[in-house]
Amino acid sequence: MSSTNSTKSTLSKAEIQGVVTSNDPSISFKKPTGVRSEFWTNYSQVYHKNIVQDYIICLQRRTVLKWISENGIIVMSHHNCLKSKPVTTTPSRQRTISSYCQQPSSSKEYPLLQKRITEACVEYCAVDGRSFESVAGTGFMNLVKQLINAGATLGTSVSVSELLSHPSTVSMEFLFQLKMYIQNQLLSFYFSIDQS
């Protein structure tokens, strides 16, 4: 996806970000050729003095991100850009300051919600053949936290099946994270041998 040039500038991410922030005319942005993902509507590839860089820019916040074509859209999908929305009217379901704080267990809805969650956990374990201990795992807790955050942000009008990733997408993300972990381990091993 990224263009191939024989000479590449060796600017760091911080230097590129500085040049972008200062609106330096030597920086330009262009979409790579042949991209199909809708993520690219919010991103462009960075060029310095008309030489393609291994960086993309988030067009919402003008944030520079490290990117190579082999990574595909992973960097974009992990970027937590708060999209600016024009303020028109106050939403009908505006969150209060207390909604951002941890709710005490004395809340009126707490026992009912806890019962519903317990029933859903039982169904998860029984239907999917999972151990009961799996609902106490760190990964499960992180999933639940992300779903709560998504529900708080999007409300109840979003379909669960739309929000959850396809198993093949989860598998590919796992393989990517595993590859990155192994590469980092090999690099640290290489540097420790090189230093001795």
Short description:
Residues 117-169 form the Hermes trasposase DNA-binding domain. With 196 residues, this protein is of the alpha+beta class.
What report would you give on this structure?
The protein contains six helices and four strands; from the N terminus they run αββββααααα. The protein starts with 12 loop residues before the first helix and ends with a helix. With 196 residues, it is α+β, with helices and mostly antiparallel strands. The model is unreliable at 1-6 and 84-88 (pLDDT under 50). Strand 3 and strand 4 form a beta hairpin. The protein folds into three domains: 13-78, no CATH class; 105-163, Zinc finger, BED domain-containing (Arc Repressor Mutant, subunit A, Orthogonal Bundle), CATH 1.10.10; 165-196. It has a four-stranded antiparallel beta sheet, covered by helices on one side.
Structural descriptors:
196 residues, Arc Repressor Mutant, subunit A, alpha+beta, 11% strand, Hermes_transposase_DNA-db, Hermes trasposase DNA-binding domain-containing protein, 4-stranded antiparallel sheet, 3 domains
